[in-house]
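2024-03-11 09:14:02 DEBUG pipeline.ingest accepted 1 chain
2024-03-11 09:14:02 DEBUG pipeline.ingest length=331
2024-03-11 09:14:03 DEBUG pipeline.predict start
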Amino acid sequence: MDLFKPMDSNAPKEASKGAGMPEEHVKVLILGSGPAGYTAAIYAARANLSPVVYEGIQPGGQLTTTTEIDNFPGYPQGITGNEMMEDLKKQAMRFGTEVRFGLATATDLSQSPFRVTIDEEKVIVADALIIATGATAKYLGLETEEKFKGQGVSACATCDGFFYRGQDVAVVGGGDTACEEATYLSGICRKVYLIVRKPYLRASKAMQDRVFSTPNIEVLFEHVTQEIKGDMSGVNGMVLVNGKGEKVNFDITGFFVAIGHHPNSDIFKPYLDTDEVGYIKTVPGTTKTNVPGVFACGDVQDPHYRQAITAAGSGCMAAIDAERYLGERKF
């Protein structure tokens, strides 16, 4: 699901630009409320830029679907995703950030100040725009997959693999990401099943070689996941269907989905450069997009790392880039 979805393509062109809607002017508008958005808000607020944050459809971002976070610096005992995002939100608000619930439904980035339509009801006119809308992990769409999200089902081995050390897990996918996840988990877990729908891997030759040379990775070609099994304590198994149509049961405690992510960038594409998947392109070493005054941070521009700490770091960069942009133009 795109957290910041575009308007109906059949809508009149002037509607997408907020014709007839009430308008509000702000210095810095931040779209997204994950680690990138809130960190940008903290830095922008401390710079007296009076940032306004719109949370999107999932306040707190993807981390709110994670039960325990052990790898974010500063939490030696770990912390839940919801608690950490609430901490970041309170910190941003402490310095004067205004946090609002709402969806960005359309944009006009053709000129400065920029116009962003919220909930198709109101237009925010912003001197600088920070996009931190994230990327949504793709899932298989199974009912049991949804049931056990955060209880054995994950879309990030780097984030959650530690909790399954010494156990048997599965990774679904046949591309580079799936192979990377499986290889990473092989160093932590006792056994890794790589579930591949096709009779071959789509990953690069180098990644394939790494998978096939790792003894505790078993590649299950021509297998499709039918069901994820579990109980109150979480995942404890999976049911696959092989190429012959036979059901096969496996005992596992972790199920990792690695079939890709969808960057939440659709409403910005008419104005911003993106790659073939939809990740917003930024000038290397900065958060600057091809439109001066528009900055992108976090997972919406990061196809490689997708970690809370890297998102937070890029949020810091976006706020500093925005502050310098506004200072140079004396808004």
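2024-03-11 09:14:41 DEBUG pipeline.report The chain has a mean pLDDT of 91.
2024-03-11 09:14:41 DEBUG pipeline.predict end
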